């Protein structure tokens, strides 16, 4: 089978590996569509993802496909069913580490619920915490929306972790797929004033199309003046980039007791915080890994929004390539023009 591998930082190849072997609690999923994660995949390719040092590795954690076979202990997947979240952690060639391994012709989805019911959801039986979100998708949800669920579920789960409530005023640094999802969901969930900050004009325009009340370039003086022009400081600021500069820029914008919410992965080992730039009391949330039960739960609400026509993949997808053109896809992401890029298998 084909697999997208980072042979060494900066060098990506489409290679051949053996098809994964099916375990008793696993479903074999044939991938038909995947999506690049601009931040995580970009950092893995560049060699900058925190804690990942072993190369070569097989890339990808956002994919969808159709079940072709199931193990004997599987109860919650069936052949012909669409699934999201399939990954691989071991490969036929032991030289390859896993960068979650989702960009392969075949992945494995694990029946978390069956493992829990049978008392084998533990490391001794090969269980990983991400199995909880490897789930079937309702048949009325198309492949494009299904693969976007990989991002959407995490972001919607983040609203709970950040305690973002209806009426909350929110500024989002970054208008990539994560930042735009925060904007879109904030409006769907009834938050108050919502705005985005991004250096790319097309992304600022897309934020406005998705419901943002305003969109700013990072160097726009209006960002620093928001508390004065609005007559009040912000309830919360989300850093959807993973940048210490964004975190510090957020501090003078939030109200007393407000929240600075770091969603993007911080590549720096240390976060230097200009504490005096913020109010005397503020809340700092560092959220670089999903809360799995919230992420799993989010799929129900997202599916309803899709059915109602309130949420569409086309609002986010700007580029699409066959997986054989993975180099061109990654180059497009590096250019900064991509919101969400799909890979066709």
- CATH H level of the largest domain: which superfamily? Medium-chain alcohol dehydrogenases, catalytic domain
Q: Helix and strand succession?
A: EEEHEEEEEHEHEHEHEHHEHEEHEHE
CATH level 1 name of the largest domain: Alpha Beta
Structural class assignment: alpha/beta
Query: Percent of residues in beta strands?
Result: 25-35%
Number of domains: 2
First-to-last CA distance:
11 Å
Major sheet details: 7 strands, mixed
Q: How many whole angstroms does the radius of gyration measure? A: 20 Å
What is the name of the CATH architecture of the largest domain?
Alpha-Beta Complex
Low-confidence stretches: none
User: Roughly what percent helix?
Assistant: 25-40%
**Shape type:** globular
CATH topology of the largest domain: Quinone Oxidoreductase, Chain A, domain 1
Mean pLDDT: 96
SSE diagram, text form:
Blueprint: E1 2-8, E2 11-16, E3 26-35, H1 40-46, E4 57-58, E5 63-70, E6 82-84, E7 97-98, E8 106-110, H2 112-117, E9 135-136, H3 143-161, E10 170-173, H4 177-188, E11 194-197, H5 201-209, E12 214-216, H6 221-224, H7 226-230, E13 234-239, H8 244-250, E14 254-262, E15 282-286, H9 292-307, E16 317-322, H10 326-334, E17 340-344
Helix pairs in contact: 3-4, 3-9
In short:
The chain has 345 residues and is an alpha/beta fold. It has helices at 40-46, 112-117, 143-161, 177-188, 201-209, 221-224, 226-230, 244-250, 292-307, 326-334, and strands at 2-8, 11-16, 26-35, 57-58, 63-70, 82-84, 97-98, 106-110, 135-136, 170-173, 194-197, 214-216, 234-239, 254-262, 282-286, 317-322, 340-344. The protein folds into 2 domains: 2-150 and 313-344, Quinone Oxidoreductase, Chain A, domain 1, CATH 3.90.180; 163-286, NAD(P)-binding Rossmann-like Domain (Rossmann fold, 3-Layer(aba) Sandwich), CATH 3.40.50.
